[in-house]
Specification:
about 100 residues, elongated
């Protein structure tokens, strides 16, 4: 991303969010609920490629969206990159 403009990065993020969400069969409200990010924010970020200046996501928002989409932040910013699998902890078992 060296020499990249912020606008180009936000366009790539917008396209990546949109494509990953659709590939998983999620609506914007589904993604908002899974990521615990407001629907309005999801909509703003997906529209970032349409010339809006409202897209300036925090790392927390990026992390939540990436986790909900089964990737990591670099995977969102570089859609062609293979993301590391997201590790999830197994629930603790109650002793018998």
């Amino acid at each position: 991303m060296a020499g990249d403009t912020w606008g180009a990065t936000m366009q790539r993020l917008a396209r990546s969010l949109h494509d990953r969400r659709l590939n998983l069969g999620l609506s914007q409200p589904d993604l908002a609920r899974l990521s615990k990010v407001s629907l309005r924010r999801v909509q703003q970020l997906e529209a970032a490629g349409v010339g809006t200046d409202e897209a300036n996501p925090s790392l927390r928002v990026l992390h939540r969206l990436a986790a909900a989409l089964g990737t990591d932040i670099p995977g969102l910013l570089n859609p062609g990159r293979l993301a590391k699998p997201v590790r999830r902890r197994a629930p603790k078992r109650k002793p018998s």
